[in-house]
Amino acid sequence: MLTDTAVKAAGPRERPYKIADAAGLYLYVTPAGGRLWRLKYRFQGREKALSLGAFPAVSLTEARARRNQARALLATGEDPSAVRQAERARARAAARRRPGLHFQMSADGRLTINVPAGAVTLSPVETDALRAFLAAAPKEEHPCSPTPQ
């Protein structure tokens, strides 16, 4: 079993090397001095490796916790690497679907304006005032209207 002291003392060598912990967890040390946590496991008869993060951003305790999470997925018959890829794909798809600006009107007359930084909700009185302002603005001065040709 690895210790925090051993992880901190692991220095670069001419070639990359591994320091084993337990249950497939190991520290991969690069010639440039990078220390990366990896998990070696088998899924459907094939050997695979899963990256768990870089030391010191991911401590020994956190690496062991991530190893245990991956092992729990393996116990349910899921490939931890495939699960991670699916999560990242869902996050990318959600980011693509999220519009930059979205308006939503509730039944009680409240207007909610959603932007990437958050949301603003206008009361029914504020919503009516905004409507009146937009209706009164001349078309050629309105910043959202197309320019006449």
Q: What would your notes on this structure say?
A:
The protein is of the alpha+beta class and 149 residues long. The protein folds into two domains: 93 residues, 2-Layer Sandwich (Double Stranded RNA Binding Domain); 40 residues, no CATH class. The chain has four helices and seven strands. The strands form two sheets. It has a four-stranded antiparallel sheet, covered by helices on one side. A hairpin with a 2-residue loop joins β6 and β7. It is elongated, with a radius of gyration of 27 Å. The mean pLDDT is 88.
Annotation, overall tally of beta strands: 7
Strand content: 25-35%
The largest pleated sheet is described as: 4 strands, antiparallel
Uncertain segments of ≥5 residues (pLDDT<50)?
A: none
Determine the mean pLDDT. Answer: 88
At the fourth CATH level, what is the homologous superfamily of the largest domain?
A: Integrase, DNA-binding domain
